[in-house]
Please model this.
Amino acid sequence: MSLLTIIANVCRRVGQPVPNVVVTSTDATVQQMLSFANEEGTELMKYGDWRKLRKQKVFTTLAQEEQTGMVPSDLGKWLDESFWNRSARRPLWGPIDPQLWQAWKAFQTFPVMDVFYMEGDNILVQPVPEAGETFAFAYTSNLWCQSAAGVGQSEWLADDDTGILSERVMTLAIMYRYLDARGLASQSAYEQFDLQRRQELSGDSPRSTQSFAGGDYWWGRRPGITIPEGSWSVP
Model:
């Protein structure tokens, strides 16, 4: 569905005239719905870990603490515990909070394991890595819609833009926001929207098995040196 189709569907449901254009429309109601659509897109992007918005940032390290320009331009949300030194095959622990990082800097004492700290668009790493190592992390992109040519966008810009996330959820969200803004009965519309949003996220991707036993359920997040599981010949 395009932006025009979404807004037209909302107008039909709330008893408003169906527009022929949206972005360039001079109609106050249509412009209000466009504003709702952009607001909902940003909130929906942050609502959960959407499979279609997952990306990874892979970069080559410099031989210095500060790894510059490593924050993606389309960063929406960080995906926790996904930062790895692929060259050494071990995780980076963090982000370290400012108080602890400053304490370590003051004493010039850092852990043996890799740790990182966020500062603006840079990532600070200790111990200082060698040049040419491969680091990577996962994140959620803020490009929740796209142009007709398939270029990702963080807002609706044209009538023929299409949603990357659920357009049904977008339709229900705009309708709920419109009713609420007009002081009309909106509780039922909100409940329908919220249910659909939670169902969409629940079925968005398979879920990993969770263990309440703790301990060694997943070898990948143990601190220290990581050794892949398997059979090893000892000379």
